[in-house]
Amino acid sequence: MVEVFKTNVTEPHHANMIVERIHHAYTNYKANFDLEDCDNILRIKCHEGNISPSCLIELLKNLGFYAEVLT
Fold first, then answer.
1. Mean of pLDDT over the chain
2. What's the pTM?
3. What is the structure's pLDDT at 47?
4. Closest alpha carbon to 65 in 32, 37, 38, 42
5. Residue 14 contacts by C-beta under 8 Å, 6 or more apart in sequence?
6. How far apart are CA 51 and CA 45, in angstroms?
7. How far is C-alpha 6 from the chain's CA centre?
8. Fewer CB in 10 Å around end: N or C, the chain?
9. In angstroms, rounded to a whole number, what is the distance separating the alpha carbons of residues 67 and 65?
10. What contacts 43, CB < 8 A, 6 or more positions away?
11. Backbone angles phi, psi at 45, to 5 degrees
């Protein structure tokens, strides 16, 4: 399963910190950012189970960032 989010993350060091937090909190998720994209994409892959968009949105919110599911 893959879920893609539009974010307001623009700095690589913020993206790296967020990816580390996601990997720590959700060990079965693989996360990466595409900050070259106009939507500052956060892509989450999960080979086992489902992805919880609301939990990821809340995690980013708690870190001071915005995310929404990109349709």
1. 96
2. 0.93
3. 85
4. 42
5. 65
6. 8
7. 9
8. C
9. 7
10. 2, 3, 4, 5, 31, 32, 33, 34
11. -115, 140
